[in-house]
Design brief:
Blueprint lengths: L8 H17 L4 H33 E2 L2 E2 L6 H6 L3
Antiparallel strand pairs: 1-2
Helix pairs in contact: 1-2
Amino acid sequence: MSDQDDIDFEAALEELETLVERMEGGDLSLEDSLKAFERGIALTRTCQAALKRAELKVQALTESASGPVVEPMAADALDDDDD
């Protein structure tokens, strides 16, 4: 199992932001920049996979075999909250 499989979305995103800041700083050697870029690609893929899983879960929760489970909220219901 690789490092990217062991990290959750929030941690991957935080690490990715840190890597971007370091790379933008321009203080890394070429070799370190390439390693950071490679790690950034792996973290990006981890984040994309987590977002896709979340999207599929939301889709599964809002659909049933006969169609959507969740119905759109009527405009009347929105107006009732203002009273």
